Amino acid sequence: MSVGKLRLGTRGSALALAQSQAIAEKLGAEVVVIESEGDRSTESLALMGGTGVFVTALRHALLANEVDVVIHSFKDLPTAPADGLAIAAVPPRADARDALCARDGFTLDTLPEGAKVGTGSPRRRAQLAARRPDLEIVDIRGNVDTRLARVGSDDPERALDAVVLAVAGLDRLGRADAITQHLELAWWPTAPAQGALAVETRAGDTNIAAKLDHRPTRLAAEAERGVLARLEAGCSAPIAATAFSEDGMMFLTASVYALDGSAKLTASHALYAADSKDPAGELSARAATELLDAGAADLAPIRGSR
Ligand SMILES: NCc1[nH]cc(CCC(=O)O)c1CC(=O)O
């Protein structure tokens, strides 16, 4: 690693900067903004190969020794490990829930018939369609502020009645005021590792950031992401997973949705962490096996870029 001040690489979006600045302060690091194709282009992310485009640019900067640490939203990180790099720390998790941000204080149940709700996520689309088949779901992309600006917009072309966003992102951007309903994990589980950050370094440098690691968050994120890995699914697959520990037990619930919301499969497992050498791996293996045995691969297009 370098001798001088640590350099911390991040995407330039407001959300990425907000979460990276907090980590940079804890590490006494200098923030370096890394631009990627995903930030420059307005093309659909799906066409560019998913959110992996952001990750690739950050990893290149690490491997090229331009920075020493990079910060990812853990839910946007492919499950395939990167050669020569390691997740040095998973800091304490923020709120893992999604939120509805609607005009006029509406909730999922009070939105008018046929209301337009924006999301770019197949999981959120399936969950919305399952709960409110009458909604018109609009495929949107862009950063959090762009999405929020469409709610109740004066421009009829862009106007939406609501969007669904991660509470963690809204909190980090100071936009929690836009939330009209918190969607509870018990009936609206979210993406594997949502609300968690991954602090990545070169494989030999993990000590740089090890002090930021929060083991319960790392285990939960590993269990949730393990389901994705075992289903060979990408971050845009219609899959939700929620894990947590309590009193020495670890719990994992994972769901796979039909894209149109017409069906879902759910597997829930628990174990005493002390009884297992790899509690996260074991839990995710059990859940993934149950989902596959129940026909998850026929229910949804889960195979995707990892
Ligand atoms: N896919 C975009 C993305 N990646 C991470 C977050 C913020 C929440 C988090 O850290 O999990 C968001 C925005 C959103 O889903 O609303």
From TrEMBL:
InterPro entries the UniProt entry points to: HemC, Porphobilin_deaminase_cofac_BS, Porphobilin_deaminase_N, Porphobilinogen_deaminase_C, Porphobilinogen_deaminase_C_sf
NAD listed as a keyword: no
GO-annotated molecular function: hydroxymethylbilane synthase activity
GO annotation, cellular component aspect: cytoplasm
Porphobilinogen deaminase N-terminal domain: residues covered: 6-209
Gene3D superfamilies according to UniProt: Periplasmic binding protein-like II, Porphobilinogen deaminase, C-terminal domain
The keyword Transferase appears for this protein: yes
Porphobilinogen deaminase C-terminal domain residues: 220-292
CC cofactor: dipyrromethane
PROSITE patterns recorded: PORPHOBILINOGEN_DEAM
EC numbers for this chain: 2.5.1.61
Keywords: Porphyrin biosynthesis, Transferase
Enzyme class (EC, first level): transferase
Record note on quaternary structure: Monomer.
Name of the featured protein: Hydroxymethylbilane synthase
Gene encoding the protein: hemC
